[in-house]
Amino acid sequence: MRDTPPKRVAIVGPGALGCLLATALCRIFPGEIWVLDHDSQRAALLQHSGLTLERAGRLEHFPIQATADAQRIGPVDLVLLCVKSPALPPTLPSLLPLLTENTLLLAWQNGIGHLPVLLGAELPGALALAVTSLGAHLLGPGRVRFGGAGATSLGFLGEAPPEARLALQGVAELFRMAGLEVLVEADILAQVWNKLLVNVGINALTAMYHCENGALLENGEALGLLRAAVLEAASVAQAKGIAIAPDPVARTIAVCRATASNISSMLQDVRGNRQTEIEAINGAVLEEAIRLGIAAPVNAELFAAVKALEKGYLPG
Ligand code: PAF
After folding, report:
1. Which end of the chain, N or C, is more open, meaning fewer C-beta atoms within 10 Å of its C-beta?
2. 315 part of a folded domain
3. Which residues are catalytic?
4. pLDDT band for position 131 (50/70/90)?
């Protein structure tokens, strides 16, 4: 593994975040970034038309290499795994042609549902997690709107060999060169839970009320549910001994304010008739709460409400 910024990079999943990260890295390695997409028609479209970034009303265009066939890409230094949690089980085996012992796989999923799936996958190379509050909104295939700057934390879940740690520093450097605010964290699990608590309080409620993040603060009923859901999840984190940051309700409210006009990723999924990350967010908190004997009725309510929304459009 290398401690200099990685050169061969593949981004898996051209959703909002995947496209945003791809455009950032295209500035450093123009024309060299690969996108792997399970959808071969969309991959062909991205290969032909590239990516478009909309930021502060300006449009910028980036040529990209895109394919649905990981063999065409071959081994890379860095994989940014940007598919949503529910897509991980079918995606992970398709990554094998990209991975060697020297590859760093960086996983960007929301929630905690992805952790057992990733840890159980036994893939070659090193696995690290990324937790970000960057905002991104997918406008169409390969067309992304920048939704606001935000810090990104990177880290390993457990022990990692020294060369993998150096490689992660190189990746942090790469993102800094691309203009992102990045920190390498010793306790990434605490960051995962800090972000989870924010998603627990915002995502399902914006999907249920069909509203932008900021509108939750103007709706007394939604705000009450936000507080209760976050506090339940914080009790679960405390029972698990996770060192979450103080006052998660205030932090969630601050994120609602900072991203007031954002359409949350879950509401984007519901509007696009896609499977949401409810299992990995409120569902995963509920599962842990049940295991630990902690009451989590509001997370149960939010989980059931979003599952009911999904039932309205998902097959079976
Ligand atoms: O999932 C999301 O949409 C984002 O994590 C957040 C922070 C809720 C902002 O929209």
Report:
1. C
2. no
3. 195
4. very high
Mean pLDDT of the chain: 95
Ligand 1 atom 9: the closest Cα is on which residue? 264
> Is 265 domain-assigned?
yes
Q: What is the DSSP letter of 111?
A: S
Helix (H), strand (E) at residue 299: helix 297-311
Final residue belonging to a domain, choices 186, 206, 228: 186
Nearest CA to ligand 1 atom 4: 264
Q: What angle do CA 4, 7, 134 make, to 5 degrees?
A: 85
pLDDT at 259: 84
Q: Taking a C-beta distance cutoff of 8 angstroms, is the pair 25, 174 a contact?
A: yes
DSSP SS3 for 191:
helix
Matching residue, tokens 């905002």: 135
- Of 35, 112, 119, the closest CA to residue 80 belongs to 35
The edge-to-edge listing of strands for the beta sheet with 65-67 is 65-67, 34-36, 9-12, 78-81, 104-107, 126-132, 152-155, 182-184
Residue 147 shares a structural domain with residue 281: no
20 lines ligand 1 (CB under 6 A): no
Tokens of 64: 């990209």
Say which amino acid occupies 121. Answer: A
| Residue 78 in tokens | 């860095």
Claim to verify: residue 39 and residue 131 sit in the same structural domain = yes
Q: Tokens standing for 118?
A: 């990733």
Q: Could you give the strand order of the β-sheet that contains 58-62, starting from the edge strand earlier in sequence? A: 58-62, 51-55, 143-148, 135-140
